Structure formats: structure tokens, C-alpha cells
Amino acid sequence: xxxxxxxxxxxxxxxxxxxxxxxxxxxxxxxxxxxxxxxxxxxxxxxxxxxxxxxxxxxxxxxxxxxxxxxxxxxxxxxxxxxxxxxxxxxxxxxxxxxxxxxxxxxxxxxxxxxxxxxxxxxx
Length: 124
Fold this sequence. Notes:
Low-confidence stretches: 120-124
Structural class: alpha+beta
Strand content: 15-25%
Number of helices: 5
Oligomer: single chain
Mean pLDDT: 87
Order of helices and strands: HHHEHHEE
Number of strands: 3
Radius of gyration: 14 Å
Number of domains: 1
Distance between the termini: 25 Å
């Protein structure tokens, strides 16, 4: 339902546990290339021009809310916003012309990560 609300009619889902982490974090080159390859295939086969990155609260890849962020939901949200911005920058650097949107999902709803408003984030 959320995807329909933002205008996505026929999504080409690419789900990878901790996928934003792979795009955002240096040192995960093999995993990053796998995710990038999946996006390129979607572009080639389905003419995809927009990627929507989503990160969620209590993610095991980030140590969960309690373990990784000591239960601090604000610290967790801020961390994911920075990760989403880094992942979006990597995507637009690697695949020029790609539109990237990013959202953080927590127990209260879906939040626009506003990746274009962060210092150092690449514009769309």
C-alpha cells in the first residue's frame, strides 16, 4: 500500500537482508556488487529508473534496536538516515541518472529519510 501511495504501480522487488548496509558501508564490495547487479538487471529487463531504498528499525544487520543502539530510537533513526544517504550517493555515483528515494520504517510509520538534505549527499 505504501508503494502505491508514492506512485509505484509495478514494483520490481529486490530484497536483501541488510541491503542498505551493503551499499553504504565500505568493505562489503562483493555484496555491494550483487545488489548493484540486481538493480542493473531490473533496469535492463524492466526499464527501472527509480530505486526506493528502505531501512527498518530493529534490523538484525545493525545489531537490532536494543543491541546496536541501546534502545535509543532517535539514535537508530539518525544512523539509518546517514546510511540511506551514503547508499543513495553510492547508487547515483555508480549508476548516473538513477532516481533514488529513501525511507526509514519504524514502529510508528514510514519516514522520508530526506537524503537530499544531508551534508555531502548527492542530489538527484
